[in-house]
Amino acid sequence: MYIMFNKDGVFSGITDKIDPDSNCYFIQISDEIYNNILANLDKKIIYEQGMIKLYQVTDEGETLFTNIDVN
Amino acid sequence: MAKILSISAQERKDILLYVIFGGNGQKLESYLSISPIFSFALYHIATDSTAMNAIAASSTAMNAIINSQTAMNAIINSQTAMNAIINSQTAMNAIAASSTAMNAIINSQTAMNAIASSPYLLDVASLMYSTCNNHVNKFQKYTVSLHFHSSARTYYWTSTDGATTTQPNVNANIVFVYQVVDNTSYENTVNLYHLIAPNAVARAVDLPATTNSETVNLSPYQPLFGGLKVYDATARGSESKTVYFYGFKAL
After folding, report:
1. What is the C-alpha separation between B117 and B35, in angstroms, rounded?
2. Which domain holds residue A18?
3. Nearest neighbour of B163 by CB, restricted to A12, A19, A61
4. Which domains does chain B have, with CATH numbers?
5. For a designed S-S bond to A29, which of A8, A33, B150, B238 qualifies (C-beta 3.0 to 4.6 A apart)?
């Protein structure tokens, strides 16, 4: 499976194939990471400095929930 | 061949109608490949509202059309034919159940526009989702969540550009929104748009005010063509709203 980010590193989906016509970046992920991302679609997900960063959005603002190293 | 040329235009049209109502798409395709004169007869059928209304009302005839690539291409490029299809629940069901038909329609912006305006769209939405979801050879699937808020009220998604605040070009995409969540404690409305018609609200989702976040599940999943535009119509509260959906790119 692949996680997909737009040119600004904003989460743009999980998919099973690389689309060569897409302007997005595709990062291959393990089943474990796939399930982790799928369970956390309510989080703000961005790609930054080689890491997938998940932020919890609450009434108090955004707090880092977890980092996933995909290097 | 000389014998075929000797028959009248009306006779050629009648022969094709006979084949169409016989329900055999392969036979129809073979007739259309014999000679341009049958393609011309097909054009006359596709632009004849009486004939097309009769075809659209028959699942047998619709399946013959769907199983002939030449016929399907003629139909999706005819406004008369598409008008007949979108106003027939039988035809809409036949289209929604066929991955070949769905793929052809989503690859045509004109056809997407027509199908998006069908009064039966929500009736066949679940079937459309199943068809796209079950045919990996015709559709690539994406599972997506889009976060947006009062200071970035509009978000778009296509398989080509991903999530973006800039309006992208229409793609050969269909999107099924299944849930909208509001993380503020305010009452809000989130508007959903087909990307092929980004100025006309396709569905307004009202999120009630509570002390906790509000979740609205959409049933049936809201199908949106060309890609997705979401808009925070009320923009109350500073925290994000989230739209969850499945996206499909027609391969």
Report:
1. 35
2. 2-69
3. A12
4. 2-97 (no CATH), 139-250 (2.60.120.340)
5. A33
